[in-house]
Amino acid sequence: MLAIVGVVLIIEVVGAILTGSLALFADAGHMFSDTIGLTVALAATVIAARPATDRATFGFQRAEVFGALINGLILLGVAIAVGAQAVARLVGPGDVEIQSVPMLIVAVIGLLANVVAAVILRSQAKTSINMRGAYLEVLGDLLGSIAAIVAAVVILTTGFMPADAIASLAIALMIAPRAALLLRDAVHVLGESVPVDTSVAEIRDHILATPGVVDVHDVHVWAITSGNPVFSAHVVVADEVFARQDTGTLLDELAACLSDHFDVDHSTFQLEPAEHARHEDHVHD
User: Which of 83, 123, 142, 148 has the greatest number of CB atoms lying within 10 Å of its CB?
Assistant: First the structure.
C-alpha cells in the first residue's frame, strides 16, 4: 500500500506543477502526510509487538500512540499550510491559469488509489489508534481527491479559476477536524485519562456488589494504548474472607468481573482488612 501511495504522490506533485492546481498540491501534501503516517504506523506497530522487558514492564504498545500523535501533528501542519495558501490565492490578483483536463485526470487517479488504501486499512482501524490515524488520513485524502475532481470539472465547464483555491480550502477544512480528533485521542491516552467508554462509578458498583467486599478505594483506570485498559484498586475485604482463606477465590471473581463486563484484561487488586484500610495515610475515592 505504501508503494501505491508513493507513486500517486509523485503523480500528483508532477500534475500540480504542470497544471498550476493548488488543489492537487493540497491533495499531494495530504498524500505526503499519508506516506509519512503509514510509515510511522508500520514502524510503531512493529515496535509495539515487542515483548515487555525489565525496563519496559508494559511492553512497547504505547509506541502506537506516539505514532498517532505524530500523524495528527503532520495532518494539522498540512491543513494550516494548505489553508493559508488557498486564502492567499483567493485574495490575490487571481491570474493563475489552471489546466483543468490534466488536473481532472490526476485527481481521478488519486481517488482510485485512496479507495484501494481505505479498503485495506478499514478493518485494522477498528482495533488500533495508530492504524485509525492512518485510515483517517487516507479517508480524508479520498475526500480531497473528490474536491479536486469537482474543482477541475467546474473549471473545465465554466472557466471559474477560483474553484481550485476553494477546493484547496475545503480540503484544509476537512483535514483540520480529523487532526484535532486524532491529537485529542493520543493526548487522552498519554495523559492516562480514563478511557472514554469506561465508567469508574460503574466499575466501583460492580466491585462493591461482589460478596465479601466491604469497600473499594484508590481506583485507577487508564490505557496503555487504545483498546487496552488497565485497572488497579485497593479493596477492603470482610474479615471472614481472610479467616476462610478465600482471598484467591475473591481475586478470581474480581478479575473475571472486570474482564467480562468492562473488557479489562490487566487488573490489579490489593486486598485489605478493614483495620488496615483505616490507618492508610492516603485514601482516594
Answer: 148
pLDDT single digits (tens) 147-174: 889 999 999 999 888 888 898 888 888 8
pLDDT at 208 over 50: yes
Q: What is the DSSP letter of 219?
A: E
Q: Measure Cα distances from 140 to 1, 32, 41, 110, 225 in Å.
A: 16, 13, 17, 12, 23
Could you tell me if 161 and 103 are in contact, meaning their C-beta atoms sit under 8 angstroms apart? no
Grouping H, G, I as helix, E, B as strand and the rest as coil, residue 104 is helix
Residue with cell 498540512: 78
Tell me the one-letter amino acid at 205. D
User: Coil, strand or helix: which one is 136?
Assistant: helix
CA–CA gap between residue 44 and residue 40 (Å, rounded): 6
φ and ψ at residue 247, rounded to 5 degrees? -65, -35
> Among 1-10, 146-155, 200-209, 274-283, where is mean pLDDT lowest?
274-283
Which residues are bridge partners to 230 per DSSP? Answer: 222, 266
Q: How far is CA 234 from the centre of its chain?
A: 32
In total, the chain counts a number of residues equal to 285
Closest by CA position to 163, among listed 97, 106, 112, 102 = 97
Q: Could you list the beta-strand ranges (E) of the chain.
A: 213-223, 229-237, 266-273
> Who's near 205: CB < 8 A, 6+ residues apart?
none
Beta-carbon contacts of residue 17 (< 8 Å; ≥ 6 apart): none
